[in-house]
Amino acid sequence: MDRGTLWRVWLPLLAGLWAVGWIFLYGHGRGLHGPVRWIGLLLALIGLAGVILSRYTLGRSFSIAPKATALVTTGIYSRIRNPIYVSGEIFLAGMLLIVGRPELMVILLLLIPIQILRARHEAAILEAEFGEAYREYRKRTWF
C-alpha cells in the first residue's frame, strides 16, 4: 500500500468510523436506540463507505475544484457519475437520524440542488475535455 492510499482512503475511513461510532454511542440522542436511530447508523455507514470507495476509485484524479485529469469510469463510477455527492447525502441523512433531528432533513433538500449544479459544472468540464467518450459514459450511468 502506498502512502497516498493511506492518506486518501484508510485514515479518512478510520476517522469516519470512529466519529460515527462516537456520535452513535455518546452524542446527542444517545439514550434513544430505537429503529430510526439504527437505520440512521446503517445509512451513515453506507454513505461513509460510498464516499471512501469513490475517493479510492478516483485516486489522483480527485480534486476539490473540478478539473479534467482523467475520465474515471471503473468501480462505483461505472454506475454513478457523482457517487461522492450521492454518498455524502446518504451519510448526512444517517447522521441526522442518529442525532435524533430528522426535521433537519430540510437541509438535505437544500443541498440537493447545490449538488446538481456542481455536477452540471463538472460535466461541462469533462465533456469539453473528453468529448464523445464522456457523452457515451453519461448515457450509461446515473447522476
What's the gist of this structure?
The protein is built from 5 helices and no strands. It has 143 residues and is mostly helical.
Report the principal-axis shape: globular
Tell me the count of domains. 1
The Rg value, from CA coordinates, equals 17 Å
Estimated share of beta-strand residues: under 5%
**How many H/I helical runs?**
5
SSE diagram, text form:
Layout: H1 3-26, H2 35-58, H3 83-98, H4 105-130, H5 132-139
Helix pairs in contact: 1-2, 2-3, 3-4, 4-5
Description:
Helix 4 (about 105-130) runs antiparallel to helix 5 (about 130-140). It is globular and about 50 Å long. It has one domain. With about 140 residues, the chain is mostly helical. The two termini are about 30 Å apart. It has 5 helices and no strands. The protein has helices spanning about 5-25, 35-60, 85-100, 105-130, 130-140.
What would the keywords be for this entry?
143 residues, mainly alpha, globular
